[in-house]
Amino acid sequence: MTLPVLDTLSRPLRDVRISVTDKCNFRCPYCMPADIYGEDYQFAPKADVLSYEEIERLVRVFVRAGVEKVRLTGGEPLVRRDLTTLIRRLAAIEGIEDLTLTTNGWFLAGMAQALRDAGLRRITVSLDSLDDAVFGRMNGRGYGTRQVLDGIEAALAAGLAPLKINCVVKRGENEDAIVELARYFRPKGVIVRYIEYMDVGTRNRWRREDVVSSREVVERIDAVFPLEPAQPNYRGEVAERYRYKDGAGEIGVISSITQPFCGDCSRARLSTDGQLITCLFAGKGTSLRDPMRAGASDAELLELAGAIWGRRTDRYSEERESLQRLRSPKVEMYYIGG
Q1: What is the mean pLDDT of each run of 10 residues along the chain (338 residues)?
Q2: What is the spatial distance between Cα 145 and Cα 56, in angstroms, rounded to a whole number?
Q3: DSSP string covering 298-338, please?
Q4: Which end of the chain has fewer CB atoms within 10 angstroms, the N or the C?
Q5: Strands 164-169 and 122-126
Q6: How would you classify residue 298: left for phi > 0, otherwise alpha for psi between -120 and 50, otherwise beta?
Q7: Cα–Cα distance measured from residue 27 to residue 140, given in angstroms and rounded to the nearest whole number
Q8: CA 55 to CA 227: how far, in whole Å?
C-alpha cells in the first residue's frame, strides 16, 4: 500500500536520487575541486555508509510514500564494489518504474553488460567536452575522452537506453562542446542534456558571469541543426526538451539559473550516510540511517520520511538572489550526487 505525500506546495514525492558513495576518481572543478579534495581528503568512514540492505529497505519505504523512480549517483557510483548486487535488489522492488544511474563513464566499458543484466534500465553519462584538453581540465585529472566514449558504446550495445549525456556548460571553458556534442551523438540516438553551471555547494567558486544560458545553448544548436520545442515526458521533468526538426532525436536543457523549475520538483536525495535531503541546494538533511539502525520499523520510517517531505518548502532557484545574500551553507554536490 502506498501513502502518497505532498509538501507544503503540493509537490508529490515521485523520485529519489541515492548517493551510493561520496568517492570519485574525477576532480571536476564544479563539484569536487582538486585543491580541496586532495589525495588525503577523508571521505565518509565505511561504518557511516549505508549498506545495500539498508538502501533496499529505505527504497521500499520510499515506494510506499509514492516514489516511482530511483537514480543511483555518487560521487562516482561505479567505484562502489559489487554495485550490481544493489541494482539487482532494487530492480526486484514492485512499484519502481524507472531504475537508472548517472556515471562519469570511466569504468563503464567493463561494466555495462553486467549492469544491464542486473536490471538497470538506462544510464546517463557526464561528458563536458569531446576535446581531450578541455575534458582533461574539466575532469581535473587530465584524462582524455576515449575511455568514456568506449563506455558509452558499450552501454548502447548492452541496451541501456535511452542513453543520455549530461554536459555542464561553463563560460570560457567549453562552449565549443555545445554543437560538437550534438553533432557527434545525434546519429547515435543519444540525448545530450546541457546543464547551466549551478551554484551547488560552497566550494566551486561559482560566478553568475560563468553561466551560459539554456537559451544560448538552444540558439547555437538550432543554427546548425534546426530544433522545435517538445512536450515534457511527465510532470516535474527537469530538462526542457527540443526535437530536431528532421526527426533525428532530441536534446534537453536544464535551466536552474535562468528558468527555475522548483514549482514541479518531485525529487528527494539520500546521501551516502543516510541523510534525506529535500533540495539540491539544501543546507542539511535529516538522518534516516540513525533511527533505522536504532530499530525503527518500516512504518515508523515511512512516517518520518513523510513528515520530512510534508514540511518541505524548498524553492531555492526561485529565491536564489535573496538566499545568496544570506550566505547560508549548502551541502556539496559530491555528497548528494547532483
Answers
A1: 81 95 91 82 93 98 96 96 98 97 98 98 97 96 97 98 96 95 97 88 72 95 97 80 96 86 87 93 90 98 96 75 55 67
A2: 34
A3: HHHHHHHHHHHHHT----GGGGHHHHHHHT-----HHHHT-
A4: N
A5: parallel
A6: alpha
A7: 5
A8: 41
In DSSP terms, which residues pair with 99 in a beta bridge? 70
170 grid coordinates? 561553463
Task: Write the CB contacts of 142 (distance below 8 Å, at least 6 apart in sequence).
Answer: 136
Residue whose C-alpha cell reads 522492488 in the numeric block: 93
pTM score, whole prediction: 0.92
> How far apart (Å, rounded) are the C-alpha atoms in residues 271 and 147?
28
Instruction: Report residue 304 as a C-alpha cell.
Output: 518520518
C-alpha span between 318 and 322 (Å, rounded): 9
Q: Which three cell numbers stand for residue 114?
A: 553486467
Q: What's the residue count for the chain?
A: 338
Lookup: cell for 124: 546517463
Strands 69-73, 98-103: pairing is parallel
Element (H, E) at 82: none
